[in-house]
Every structure is written in structure tokens, then in C-alpha cells.
Amino acid sequence: MESPDLAALRAEYAREGLDEADAGSDPVALFARWLDDAVNAGIHEPNSMALATADPSGRPSVRIVLLKGFDEDGAVFYTNYDSRKGRELSVNPWASAVLLWHQLQRQVRIGGRVVRVDASQSDAYFGSRPRGAQIGAAASQQSRTVDDRATLEAQVADAERMFDGRDVERPERWGGFRIALDELEFWQGRPNRVHDRLRFTRAGDGWSRERLQP
User: N or C: at which end does the chain have fewer Cβ atoms within 10 angstroms?
Assistant: First the structure.
């Protein structure tokens, strides 16, 4: 099978732009508007985001996670604290994330310091998950090697037996992280790759806004 000509793959952007008047001065409100647009457009998992972390040497890693909370305090996602991202954040508590809504020709970048959310908040979210997902979280030693699929399924079966007839308890190794909103950048595709980019950064109790060249 012939490989695609990656250099020739190209799509044109032709949606309305993002100007300063439309963006306003509050990036949290703008993000909420854009997320609503993505949900209303029927985009699959509009809360999926690529999360980048780095180890102590600065070597990065990236993966897709789901955004499960967003407000003035930050962007929240949940994971196993012993996973690769959890271990990296424990020693290098900074992260960057990007949400891409390709059908809307938009993306948002988020960056800031990361802290664990309160245990009570992790408990509440864990309790809202389907039981199967709870069992999976209890069974998985995320990012650790495993001999084969059968071994993994045996761990799941063990967890099912452990919690048979009772609620699944949130493992201490599983919970939420919050990325502080130190910086947000809103990107809107425009024709001829002359895209709109507006970056908001913390400035005391408010925000500063600036336009970046594409």
C-alpha cells in the first residue's frame, strides 16, 4: 500500500474570525462559550484534551485525558496518581493542555501549575462514575507493564469479587489534578493560515490579553 503524501495534505480554514471585541476580557467566560459551541455541534468527546507533562530532566510526554471541571480556579482531570503523568506531576508540577475542535476550526491551550484536588472532590467524582469504570480504576496499575491481557482481566475479576455486593471505594492512588489557569490561548482558523490567536495571562486579580502572530 502506497503511503500518503503527507506534505500534500492540506485543508483550508474559512470560518469567521476571533476579534478582541468578541473575545472580551474574561477567558473563562470565552472558554465556556466555546465549549458550549463544541457540545452543541455534536463533536465527539468535546472535553477531550491532550495533556503534556515532563519528567525531572525535562523530557516531555503527552496523552489524551478528559476535562472534568473548569472554572476560575482551573481545569480538572482525573487519573491514577501512580501513572506516568501522576509521577511526573509529583516532581514537576507544571502542565500544558490543548483542546482541539477541528469541526469548528478552533483550539484552546491551557498552561499552569498543577495541584491535586481535595479528596472530597475526588470522592464525589469517583462516586458519579459508572460501576464498571470504578472497578477498572480499582483494578488497574496504570502505566505499569503487564504480562498479557489475561493478567489484566484477572485483576479486574479480583476487583469485582472484592467489591461484590457493596460500593466501590475510590483507591487512594486515584484522584483529580487541577491545572491553574496561568495562561490560555484561543486559536481560530482563518484563510491562508493567517489564523487568529489571542493569549490571556494572569495579571494580579485579572487578565492581560494580547494578539499573537500565527
Answer: N
